Amino acid sequence: MRIFLDTADFEEIKAADKTGLIDGVTTNPTLIKKSGRDPIEVYQDIKDLGITDISMEVTGDLNQMIEDGNRLNEMFSEVITIKVPMTVEGLQACKYFSEDNIRTNVTLVFNAAQAVLAAKAGATYVSPFVGRIDDQGYAGTEVVRSCVDLLRRTNTQVLAASIRSTQRVVRCFYSGADVVTMPPGVFWQMYKHVLTDVGLDIFEKDLIT
Ligand code: G3P
């Protein structure tokens, strides 16, 4: 059961990493844009923090993805996971990097058929987008479950993404996800229960000093 943070906000990553419970970070072009920073600087900061698994997304056609992926791998080989889209060329890039023993994450996965192809391309992770599947009116966690069942006999792990609530985190792990990547807000929310706060208040009041 691994927890990744789905953000490019370095201050948020730094704060959450202090808990000792964060196993990796996933980024994407939207999150990088939101950070307002240069992607290389963001990756460098996250690496310097000691995070050992950082998903860095490449885009464009096959040549572009391979060129960018190789360039990023030269800079961040110890920590990189190259994130590629679930497209024909994305999976060709996935195969290219996987054959070189570079970790890969196939993103924008919305059903088990796509996960099968990603596994065939040697993906380290497939990322079903749970929240966006839920938005379409069917259960994202059921797609996670299908991916987990289908990929059981492969080396590809299921990394549940597009997570918007603690309840979805739990359902994804119940469904067998190897990793759940979540926004920092959802991570911090996992600590919370109203009865924990109430119980703590009572204990503090009853404390004999
Ligand atoms: O990891 C993918 C994630 O960032 C997408 O999340 O909430 O935009 O669907 P969301």
Structural description of this entry:
- It contains 11 helices and 8 strands.
- It is an alpha/beta fold and 209 residues long.
- It has an 8-stranded parallel barrel with strand order 1-2-3-4-5-6-7-8, surrounded by 6 helices.
- Strand 5, helix 6 and strand 6 form a beta-alpha-beta unit.
- The chain is globular and about 65 Å long.
- 41% of the residues are buried.
- It binds SN-glycerol-3-phosphate (G3P).
- The site of SN-glycerol-3-phosphate has 10 residues, from helix 7.
What key attributes describe this structure?
209 residues; eight-stranded parallel barrel; 8 strands; 18% strand; 11 helices; globular; binds SN-glycerol-3-phosphate; alpha/beta
The gross shape turns out to be globular
Major beta sheet, strand line-up? 1-2-3-4-5-6-7-8
Task: Tell me the β content.
Answer: 15-25%
* Succession of helices and strands: EHEHHEHEHEHEHHEHEHH
Number of H/I helices: 11
Structural class: alpha/beta
- Give the number of DSSP strands: 8
How much helical structure, as a percent, in the residues? 40-55%
